[in-house]
Specification:
Layout (H helix, E strand, L loop, with lengths): L6 E6 L17 E2 L2 E2 H11 L6 E5 L17 E5 L4 H10 L10 E4 L9 H11 L5 E7 L5 E4 L2 E5 L6 E10 H10 L9 H6 L6 E4 L12 H12 L1
The structure holds cytidine-5'-monophosphate.
Length: 231
């Protein structure tokens, strides 16, 4: 009997967001009447695609229990880790009794609240029959330079360079195994890089440019503009 895979969402939300220079982690900054994290989770929950959304939260986080969404029956809380990859692994472990090896997991940054249902659908439709999985990504419109010590040492071939976004969609068993094997490896800055180390070739699916990651103070008004445009 063939098993129809279920879909799970994993949201790493245990970062401090130092580059925002704010009084609280960036996922708790307010954006159009809600926190960044509430926007992100509501976008994922509204798709009704996921069996559960597993959210990695810092153990010292006083803000999470105050949000109504933390009590949503489709939302699980896992302890965050030192690096993003540790937080993702912890959120995967939290669903280990329920998820099957072949189930799909979509890992999405808490700091990307402008993700659209259309992009989630596109990623799933493009990859559901794929062996490995893949990620939303953006091609670069700018010419890209390789720089050492403040000087340009080369120009990269733009045709081969894509910017990795999230969600990143992989099979539960393989993703967990790849992240377990790469604990402490600084080269693993997203899920795809963990699978690449195993010799796999994740696909890219061109996503929307408004799926920005809130990183610096100037990103907040931009995210607000995109959220309002999307409504
Ligand atoms: O810092 P950066 O923007 O790259 O973080 C991407 C995402 O990973 C954010 O949603 C952040 O909360 C999360 N993260 C985490 N655990 C860490 C570091 C980052 O869940 N230790």
């Amino acid at each position: 009997m063939t098993h129809t895979p279920s879909y799970w969402a994993v949201v790493p939300a245990a970062g401090v967001g130092k580059r925002m220079q704010a009084d609280r982690p960036k996922q708790y900054l307010e954006l159009v009447g809600k926190t960044v994290l509430e926007h992100t989770l509501s976008r994922l929950l509204q798709t009704k695609v996921f069996s559960a959304v597993s959210v990695a939260i810092s153990v010292e986080d006083p803000y999470w229990p105050e949000l109504a969404v933390s009590k949503n029956e489709c939302v699980l809380t896992a302890p965050g880790g030192k690096e993003r990859a540790d937080s993702v692994l912890s959120a995967l472990q939290a669903i280990s009794g329920r998820a099957s090896e072949q189930d799909w997991v979509l890992v999405h940054d808490a700091a990307r609240p402008c993700i659209t249902a259309a992009d989630i659908r596109l990623l799933i439709d493009s990859l559901q029959d794929d062996e490995v999985g893949g990620i939303l990504a953006l091609s670069s419109h700018d010419t890209l330079k390789s720089v050492e010590g403040g000087s340009i040492v080369g120009t990269l071939d733009r045709a081969h360079i894509w910017r990795a976004l999230t969600p990143q969609m992989f099979r539960y068993g393989r993703l967990k195994q790849a992240l377990e094997a790469s604990v402490g490896n600084p080269a693993v800055t997203d899920e795809a890089s963990a699978l690449e180390l195993f010799g796999m070739r994740p696909k890219i699916v061109e996503g929307r440019p408004d799926n920005i990651k809130i990183t610096r103070p100037e990103d907040l008004p931009l995210a607000q503009f995109y959220l309002e445009q999307q409504q």
